[in-house]
Amino acid sequence: MNNRRVGLWLIGAFGGVGSTAALGLAALARNLMDTTSLVTALPLFADCDLDRPEQFTVGGHDIRLTNYAQAVAELHERSNVFDAGVMQACQPTLAEWSENVRPGTVLNAGSTIVRLADLPEAQRAESARAAVERIRADLQAFRAKHHLDQVVVVSVASTEPPFELGDNHQSLERLTPALEEASRPILPASSLYAWAALSLGLPYINFTPSLGASFPAIQQLGIEHRAVFGGKDGKTGETLLKTVLAPMFALRNMRILSWVGHNIFGNRDGLVLDDPQNKASKIRTKDQVISQIVGYKPQTHVSIEYIESLDDWKTAWDHIHFQGFLGVKMSMQFTWQGCDSILAAPLLLDLARLALFAQRRGEVGVLRHLACFFKSPMGVDEHDFFKQFQMLEQYVKSQTPAGA
After folding, report:
1. Which helix or strand (DSSP H or E) is residue 214 part of?
2. In sequence order, which residues have a C-beta less than 8 Å from that of residue 101 and are 6 or more positions away?
3. pLDDT (tens digit, 9 = 90+) per residue, 90-109?
4. pTM for the whole thing?
5. Which end of the chain offers a freer environment for a tag, N or C, measured as fewer CB atoms within 10 Å?
6. How far apart are CA 115 and CA 196, in angstroms?
């Protein structure tokens, strides 16, 4: 059993997913809960030297004036999640970790996200380079203060609007000088965080649909600094069902004619996605998987609506119209209801453990074997969930003594 000390740095630390992950880590370290929903708790990973919950220290960036205890209490009150006894037992750890959270940045994050910020430091006027240097300093201070062997950065921040890429974004040589310019938006906030992490050689995971590290210049930066990175947009609900059900239709040679999905939820992410610009980023990742799995383009429609009273609970209703033998048309409908943060937080912890594992093994670049965790996996065109999970299985078996 190793004695490593590792750090989990969360972008959007006090959001629903970040605070749920922090509470989960603290509870797991105290043996107050089991490992249900942690993929890395499956027998497949038994021979991997993954970091244990008690080895983690949590920090991060946020743009709001709050703390973990307050964020957890609000989720508990609004959405009726978490056990009160677990919350109480974990208060000392949550208070300690709250001290590690620093003001983030809303530079080029879009007007809706800017309105959420109530920390003056997050709204300061600065160049992209200045923002990156400030984030880098926070990461370095966190690592030094807690004597950490490794730090992994995971973005669970609010979804930004789509960001238009240009020629500068294709090359690190062209993009680096442009970071000094304050006169035009060169990178959104999500990519500034990614740039800071990768320039320090830290593992970076993008759990959001925002740009992050998904363009050539920043990936070149990550490779030059021997960093690992992955994403994007965690697959937790309706899209997970799509990537499980679409292969069934393909393998039974039944033709999907149309697939309509309506999504309603009410948390802060829902509020942000109520802005049509921010919503466009999310729909782009949710609406691509069906055609890529079945090999043709059915008529598809995805809607996302903010319903405030639902709080952290989300509901998806899908209608699938398909054609069978002798041209007969049939339909399938399903309803998915779940708590957004409860679905996402364990996957965040899985990804953090696997990214740290990959870095220790000397891997560099895109973590393609993590595709099953994402709606829009970097470096992978495969969207069939079962084929994606086979990629993860093959990777684990090739990296552990049992598979040697």
Report:
1. none
2. 13, 14, 59, 60, 61, 62, 67, 68
3. 999 999 999 999 999 999 99
4. 0.94
5. N
6. 24
